[in-house]
Amino acid sequence: MTRDPARTARAAAILAGLGVAAWLVVLNFGALGAVAWRAEGLTALRGADWAAVRFTLVQALLSAALSVALAVPIARALARRRFIGRGALIMLMGAPFILPTLVAVLGLLAVFGRAGLVNQGLEGLGLARLNIFGLHGVVLAHVFYNLPLATRILLQGWAAIPAERFRLGATLGFGPRDNFRQLEWPMLRDLVPGAFLVIFLICLTSFSVALTMGGGPRATTVELAIYQAFRFDFDMGRAAMLALVQFGLCAAAGVLAWRVALPSGLGGGMDRPVQRFDTGTAGLRLWDGALIVGGALFLLVPLALVVMRGAPHVLGLPVEVWHAAGRSLVVALGATGVTLAMTLALAHAVLIAGGARGAVLEWLGLAALAASPLVIGTGLYLLIRPLANPRDFALVVTMLVNAGMALPFALRLILPGLREVVASQGRLADSLGLHGWARLRIVTLPRLRRPLGFAAGLTAALSMGDLGVIMLFAEREGATLPMQLYRLMTAYRLDDAAGAALVLLGASLALFWIFDKWGRGLAEA
Amino acid sequence: MTITQDDFALRADLAVEPGARVAVIGPSGAGKSTLLGAVAGFVPVTQGRIIWANKTISDQGPATRPISVLFQDNNLFPHLSAFDNVALGLRPSLRLSVAERAQVTAALARVGLEGFGARRPAQLSGGQQSRVALARVVLQGKPLVLLDEPFSALGPALKVEMLQLVADICAETGATLLMVTHDISDARAIADQTILVADGVAEGPFETAHLLDNPPAALRAYLG
Fold first, then answer.
1. Chain A neighbors of B79, CB-CB under 8 A
2. Residue A203 and residue A361: Cα distance in Å, rounded?
3. Which terminal Cβ of chain B has fewer Cβ within 10 Å, N or C?
4. Residue of B nearest to A426 (CA)
5. Phi, psi for A218 (deg, rounded to 5)
6. E strands, chain B, where?
7. What pLDDT, on a 0 to 100 scale, did the predictor assign at position B5?
């Protein structure tokens, strides 16, 4: 029988995709099995553990509800106003996504913390100070993160309402209220559940925010409780039980997510304002202006403070910080490579398999959205322990878990692009006998350069700023930059922490910028 | 042979002489492109087979069939230079020997695009883009050339010029030409024979002039 290169290439692509899928199953489910198996019996949960479950749900619900509730008026104001810097502001709203959690936390502390701007103001007025730690601190940090995400998701919804509808509305004498009822409300009804669920999912696995903004046993998430049971109590049974609980929570949310289409907020096209005719009255203009300025300040002031406080201390940073930065860079670049390779393999397999099988593969790729890094990390730790010292694998495991966490976002970005390449140029490539590596090199990768660059930038920045699994594994040596920053914070070395935060912020943004720039570099035909 | 797609079926039982220039005409949606797609290997044949030079080709992949195709659009990769787009016809890996590079240059020259190799499709006019795709057909030198209305976006004069170039190229290499068209004058100008696709059946080939001068009912309805 003659060997058909087209068929060989298809088989190879399917095989690679299935390999990735198998790895995802191991990562998302196998780790949990390892936890349950190695625990040598599960320990019953204590009262404090149930408090953690309750706290996790309450903070995630509050964070998601507040983020979406605030995002609706802000997105509405942004959608119907045109002003200088509008595009820049919308772009900036994408930034929290790639902002390291600890940097955001430090920025928020500078504003709302014990010696922050708000408390200084209150003190000046002779009022009582706010205590930011605890539930409201956690929710505040989550809203800081997710309000921009929700705003971008909703702005996409507004951008998707055809301009002609608003024009038609204007001819019918629609005011703002009528526009809301007839045009905006139906769009919101479709989008809000998805936006709420995305944010709920993100907050469900909150670790570093709870670690830094939570206060004691009354403000501990399940994710944090796993870490504490594992690291401080060495109670594997309890860690395993908590991991099961966390998995259950995530699985339940994941099932919900299957039914509701999750928006991503990553796409473009939001910076084209539609001409609106319902923007007349001064009161409305003032209201929209206040919302936009308020939203911008809420985002910008904490970041500006991080830069201002950190700048004087960057040069004097201890050498460990720079070593940690180097390690983080290696982890981030490794995770980026692994994510892109996995995403490409999985996306090809999704398209080749097609139909229900393709949908299952795609779901598996997106399922990591609901996965818990700490559960996965605990599982990998227990799997490695009988074979070797897990500490030696701290960076590799961090890299692999980061790659798994970034995969859903990368898949979201790359799959539609690949689908488009196959639809528009698949036949030509087939007819020319372009298969396998040659096709990847000559057709697919160049055509996907833009989403690839964007996905690479996201992955690198997310991985650079991630504080999670590494906390389970690493000892004093071998810390990543976020971990080093956390140590400086807990040791109250605030000047060094400020400097390290600025380095981390700069590194994350630089990584994103470089990859994204590379993606945009090609003059598209 | 029979092609089935969902509830659409097309039957064809016909033979084309080597070296012939054959137009495929018929109402939109009748299955002209489907017929070409089946010959080219993009549409699976559900029953029967396609034979070329005494060999069954309907079980081969698109690239291994003795066929060059020009689609309605997307005949070029927009991110590759004209040279690379042509060279793909010779080596899908784009790793060319010196002699092969000379062949590519010669093919570009044959279609009147000397010195245009470095340009991207976006830097070329519509007619020049068509010429790049034709240069690849020249280079591939396959015995059967299929055109699925690749020039329909060009102006009438340019379209005729392109079709004439295709006819010349086919005459030089002795290739058989099968072209879908909805413009009868194209069929008259280029194709000595015509296949009529209507009502789920592909019939012919007929002598073009004779068919168009004495159209059967299905064709009369289409011609109006």
1. 446-447, 522, 524-525
2. 25
3. C
4. B74
5. -85, -10
6. 2-5, 8-12, 21-25, 51-52, 55-56, 67-70, 144-148, 176-180, 193-198, 201-207
7. 63
The distance of A356 to chain B (nearest Cα, Å) reads 18
B59 in the same domain as B35: yes
Which residues on chain B are in Cβ contact (under 8 Å) with A432? 63, 88-89, 92
Asked which of B121, B141, B161 is the last residue of a domain, the reply is: B141
Which single residue is written with the structure tokens 């309000």? A147
Identify whether residues B134 and B167 lie together within a single domain: no
Residue B162 belongs to domain with CATH number: 3.40.50.300
Q: Considering Cα of A412, then A143, then A336, then A338, what sign does the dihedral take?
A: negative
Q: How confident is the model at residue A289 (pLDDT cuts 50, 70, 90)?
A: confident
Question: How do residues A382-433 score in pLDDT, each as one tens digit?
Answer: 888 888 888 888 888 899 999 988 898 898 888 888 988 888 888 888 888 8
Domain boundaries, chain A: 1-38+314-525, 51-308
Cα angle B154-B160-B162, degrees, rounded to a multiple of 5:
70
Residue A222: CB atoms within 10 A of its CB come to: 30
- Specify if B10 maps to a domain: yes
Report whether pLDDT(B95) > 80. Answer: yes
CB-side neighbour CA atoms (13 Å) of A359: 3
> pLDDT tens digits, residue range A88-120?
888 788 777 788 989 999 999 888 887 778 878
Q: What is the CATH number of domain A1-38+314-525?
A: 1.10.3720.10
- pLDDT confidence bin for B200, thresholds 50/70/90: confident
Q: Measure the CA angle with vertex B85, ends B81 and B89; round to 5°.
A: 155
pLDDT at A277: 63
Write down the ipTM of this complex. Answer: 0.77
pLDDT band at residue A1 using 50, 70 and 90 as cut-offs: very low
The DSSP annotation for A306-338 comes to: HHHHHGGGSTT--HHHHHHHHHHHHHHHHHHHH
Q: What is the pTM of this model?
A: 0.80
Query: In a 10 Å sphere around its CB, with 0-12 CB exposed, 13-18 middle and 19+ buried, how is residue A510 labelled?
Result: middle
Phi-psi region of A232 (alpha: psi -120 to 50; beta: other; left: phi over 0): alpha
The hierarchical CATH code for the domain A51-308 is 1.10.3720.10
Supply the pLDDT for residue A511: 93
* Partner residue facing A432 (CB), from B74, B89, B122: B89
Let me know: does A59 contact A135? Beta carbons within 8 Å: yes
Does residue B59 form part of some domain? Answer: yes
d(CA A133, CA A115): 13
Segment A112-144, tens digit of pLDDT: 887 778 878 887 887 777 777 888 889 999 999
* Residue B167 domain boundaries: 2-66+143-223
First-last CA distance in chain A: 41
What's the distance, Cα to Cα, between the start and end of chain B in Å?
A: 30
Q: Does B130 touch chain A (CB under 8 A)?
A: no
d(CA A213, CA A232): 19
Q: Which of B141, B173, B196 is the last residue of a domain?
A: B141
